[in-house]
From TrEMBL:
<protein>
    <submittedName>
        <fullName>DUF3500 domain-containing protein</fullName>
    </submittedName>
</protein>
Length: 105
């Protein structure tokens, strides 16, 4: 993460949500915060996803797929039961293709 981004996030975290030095009401403050994070999201989504990066570069094989010996039957059953409980609209809002940009948000 760039130092400028960290500085901006710290500013938000410490509650300096004011315009021209004047305190704003909560609803306006929340609109400003949402817009700030939406702008960050839009900028990130405009870039191609290539993986997880740190200050040392791209991390390869962060989560390699391999058998752990633990059965997945219980989680698979629970997930399938959950998906079957949804109506068509809920299912559409809950499931995404593997390469859908929604996963990056």
């Amino acid at each position: 993460m760039k130092k400028s981004t960290i500085h901006i996030l710290c500013t938000l975290i410490f509650g300096l949500f004011s315009i021209n030095g004047q305190q704003t009401d909560d609803s306006e403050r929340m609109r400003n915060v949402r817009k700030f994070f939406k702008d960050i999201e839009d900028k990130a989504m405009a870039e191609e996803f290539v993986g997880v990066r740190t200050s040392k570069g791209l991390v390869e094989n962060l989560f390699p797929i391999h058998s752990t010996g633990v059965s997945t039957i219980h989680i698979t059953t629970a997930a399938n039961n959950f998906l079957r409980s949804l109506d068509k609209e809920q299912l559409t809002r809950t499931t995404f293709k593997v390469d859908d940009p929604e996963w990056r948000k």
